[in-house]
Structure formats: C-alpha cells, structure tokens
Design brief:
This protein is α/β, with parallel strands linked by helices. The chain has a single domain, classed as Alpha/Beta hydrolase fold, catalytic domain (Rossmann fold), CATH 3.40.50.1820. It contains 6 helices and 8 strands, in the order βββαβααβαββαβα. Strand 5, helix 4 and strand 6 form a beta-alpha-beta unit. It is globular. 42% of the residues are buried. The mean pLDDT is 93. It is found in: Cytoplasm, Cytosol. It comes from Crypturellus soui. This is Carboxymethylenebutenolidase homolog. GO terms for molecular function: hydrolase activity.
Length: 244
C-alpha cells in the first residue's frame, strides 16, 4: 500500500470498464473518450503518479466526455514506469526527478495539435490531479493554447515569482487534510496570485478531504466524503464550462 500521506485509501478499488479507446499520437500513447455528438471543445486530463492506465483517471476521462467534451489523457510518462502502490516512499524523490511535471511541454503541444487537427477542437482546457495538478500549473503559465485549467491538489512549487503570472483562467482545488500541501502554501499561493495574476483564478479548499480525494469512482467513495467529491467535480466542470 502507498505510504500514508499520499492517497485517499478506499481499501480495494472497484474494477472499471472503460468507455473510450487507446490511440497513438506521434510518440505518445493516449486514452481518449468522445461524447455521443460532435463538439469543438476538448479537455486534456493530466494523470497522477499512477499514470495513464490507472482506472481512476480513465473514469475521470469518461466523465469529462459525458459532460460533452472530447477528453484525452496522454501518457505524460512516455512509456516509463509509473509509481506503483508497492513502491517505497523513500524512493519517491528520486522517482520524481525522472518524472518531472515541469517537463510536459512537448507532449502537451503534440496533444493540442492532435485535438485541433484530428478532432476539430477550437477551445481546449486541461484538468490535472496531484502530479497532473503540478503539470497543469506549469502549462497554464507556458501554453496560451490552453483556454482554462483546473489544478487539483498539485503540490505548489515556489521557485520564482513567474509561477503566478498565469496566461489563462485557472482554478486550484485542495483538500483541507492533504498531508502533502500545507495551508501556509495555499495562503501564499493566494497572496502571490493576487499580486501577479492578470486573469481569472480561484482557490478552493474542501473540508476534511485528503490527497487524491476527487478522482474516486462513486462506489469507492466514503459516504462522509461523497458530497465534497461531488462538489469538487461540479466546481471543476463549472469552471471549464465558463471558459470553454
């Protein structure tokens, strides 16, 4: 099992039958799900440390498609090993060096090109969870083609003031009991965004929620968390809908 601070522990996860399909986009494999009718709106889903094959992230991709968007989760790890629940927490820092969420620009560009040229997308957003939340924060500073972003419990990297000059509207979702992100970091993020950010942004902290709370399939949710998970999802879709 994963080391304690890391992931919402729902016990054994339920199985999931995916609605979408796997595709090859240049050098990247990806999981894609499309809504029943044509749309020119798309959302990239950035996976967490467990990678693009993890059933929880595929459930999210399918959910995004159900809301009327072309949804795609590329393998941002480019075929390298994702983190596994059996891996040792002590090795995590080394693993992260090989899986840097700030080095996703080339893959993002490849997927954006695919969505525009092959899927007819005119407006594209991005949502990301944990590792993917960090990737979203990075991409919303670097890639003007992304019309809106939602970063869910991405650890806040405070490397420079330019971390806060977002190009397009971004929503930051956190859990109140997340051991990986301190409340001080969230407060600082808010202060810095107020100072440097020229576009719409929002920060919201969900009571009692731990790291990884918003990805769960309905049958894996604990009853006391269900309202907060559903609220976070609704907030995520409301944000995307406002800008895409």
């Amino acid at each position: 099992r994963m080391a304690d601070p890391f992931l919402y522990d729902s016990g054994e996860r339920s199985r999931y039958r995916c609605q979408g399909q796997e595709v090859q986009i240049e050098h990247i494999k990806a999981y894609i799900c499309k809504p029943s009718s044509f749309t020119d709106k798309a959302v990239i889903v950035a996976h967490d440390v467990f990678g693009w094959l993890f059933s929880d992230i595929r459930y999210i991709v399918d959910l995004v498609a159900l809301h009327g968007y072309v949804a795609v989760c590329p393998d941002f790890f480019k075929g390298t090993e994702p983190w596994k629940p059996t891996d040792h927490w002590a090795d995590f820092a080394d693993w992260m060096k090989e899986h840097d969420p700030m080095k996703v620009d080339r893959e993002a560009d490849v997927v954006l090109k695919y969505l525009k040229e092959q899927c007819g997308a005119k407006k594209i957003g991005i949502v990301g969870f944990s590792w993917g939340g960090m990737a979203v924060h990075h991409l919303m500073l670097k890639n003007p083609q992304l019309n809106a972003g939602v970063s869910l419990y991405g650890r806040i990297v405070r490397d420079s003031e330019e971390r806060y000059n977002l190009l397009n509207p971004t929503f930051f979702i956190f859990g109140e009991k997340d051991h990986t992100i301190s409340y001080d970091q969230i407060t600082l993020l808010e202060e810095k965004l107020k100072q440097y950010c020229k576009v719409g942004y929002k920060i919201k902290v969900y009571p009692g929620q731990v790291h990884g709370f918003a990805q769960l399939k309905p049958e894996d949710m604990k009853p006391q968390d269900k309202p907060y998970i559903e609220e976070a999802r609704q907030d995520m879709f409301d944000w995307i809908k406002m800008y895409i």
